[in-house]
Amino acid sequence: xxxxxxxxxxMFIQEGEDVSMNCTSSSIFNTWLWYKQxxxxxxxxxxxxxxxxxxxxxxxxxxxxxxxxxxxFLNISASIxxxxxxxxxxxxxxxxxxxxxxxxxxxxP
Amino acid sequence: xxxxxxxxxxxxxxxxxQVTLSCSPISGHRSVSWYQQTPGQGLQFLFEYFSETQRNKxxxxxxxxxxxxxxxxxxxxxxxxxLGDSALYLCASSSGWDISxxxxxxxxxxxxxx
Lengths: 109, 114
Known about the structure:
The structure holds 2 protein chains of 2 kinds.
Chain A lengths: L4 E3 L2 E5 L4 E6 L6 E7 L6 E6 L5 E4 L2 E5 L5 E6 L8 E9 L2 E4 L3 E6 L1
Parallel strand pairs in A: 2-11
Antiparallel strand pairs in A: 1-3, 3-8, 4-5, 4-9, 6-7, 7-8, 9-10, 9-11
Chain B lengths: L4 E3 L2 E4 L5 E6 L6 E8 L3 E9 L2 E5 L6 E5 L5 E5 L8 E8 L8 E3 L3 E5 L1
Parallel strand pairs in B: 2-11
Antiparallel strand pairs in B: 1-3, 3-8, 4-5, 4-9, 5-6, 7-8, 9-10, 9-11
């Protein structure tokens, strides 16, 4: 079930701005994943993190696995209109996988 | 490599009916998980199958069931449909021996119960 606290719930930004969102949990996880979902489609995996403290980039996206293993953040630099969508975090420990409620991102050209 | 495919993409059923959804994982993936997504509850885990065996199950009533075939394709069945079952049903496959590997989602089946 949904036991990750993801914030903010929504963001309205201007094209070119940087974006930051994060997820926190009361439980520790071995893996953090970040997904993006477009309307009517399934989530697409953006970044996977496997070690506490790990910082990983995928183009303009950067994500970090928190040192306490209870949090993660995602940054998007120089946002563009196609970044619009809902971003989800997911934490995994063994066979337990939890999702955040999502951050809805709107980018104004 | 083809991604995860789900059929049908859209479905309209009436209360009391049953429905079967299908998922074909990425070639070589042996773990398939099912999720229900609704605006109010977000993504909720239904169950996970690996090598034709259900390995993990979420907190859903027994009306929700699934199975996996020897070619890793999976089906999900919902019996005695209720209005609250209207949702996007997502299937995700994983290459690893455990769910704790990267999961790749299909496009989902949008189920509407009237």
